[in-house]
Write a structure and sequence with these properties.
Blueprint (H helix, E strand, L loop, with lengths): L2 H23 L7 H6 L6 E3 L16 E3 L23 E5 L8 H11 L6 E4 L15 E4 L4 H5 L2 E6 L3 H9 L4 E3 L4 H12 L3 E3 L7 H13 L1 H16 L3 H16 L2
Parallel strand pairs: 1-2, 3-4, 3-6, 4-5, 6-7, 7-8
Helix pairs in contact: 3-7, 5-8
Length: 258
Amino acid sequence: MGHGGVTDISAQLWYAARTLLTARRLGLQTRSILDELFLGSQALNVVFTSRAFQPFSERFGSTFVFAGPSLDEREPEPDFPWDLIGSKEVILVTLGTIFNLDPHPYRLCLEALANTNRPVVVSTGHGLPENALPCLPNVIVRPFVPQMRLLRQASLFVCHGGIGGLSRAIGCGVPVITSPVIREQALVGARVEELGAGVLIPRRKLTVTGLRDAANRVMGDRAFSENAENVGESFVSTDGMDEAVERIFALTRLQSSP
């Protein structure tokens, strides 16, 4: 098995183990880690996206509640040099907070995007020193940035395909270029591309020329942003959180009754 397959399985095992440990700390009934990996359906399943974004959503029955993604704008406001970008449209780049210690993908993004007529904002997360990347006049590099506020004036979001940041971008009507690291992110990126809201570039095929061409294509074709706006509207209009909370409490009462 190749390195990529090992990474996929490790990530899935880590997620399943974390889920089981959290459930047991809360005193909830749990199954084995293999059941959690391969038999994920429960009496109640809360899905943090919209039916429009979920592939094959017609196969998801009444035990699934589509709560929609979290688009909460009440985020911490890190120090940020707003005077350097003003009201200009920006390109926002973030490659995650787990597999983010290799500076090469960031340098590739900078080389591909720095010569556009838009400021490029790069969020690296913890671990990667800011001086690991070149200092360029059209680029702002920070460990963390006010993501939602920047997305409000972004014309493109370049990311690894993590569902959180990607949902925020699409929720703001911003088209996305994804370059995934693990399989889950590849599925998310493929769905974005299928819906016409962005482009998927496999990480092993990520090049300066390929990313630059994809960025010009996405920002130059209004159809991408229109499709992102349509999918984003499905995120905003999916209001299943109250139903999810009510059904969680109902299920808890049922399981605790004698």
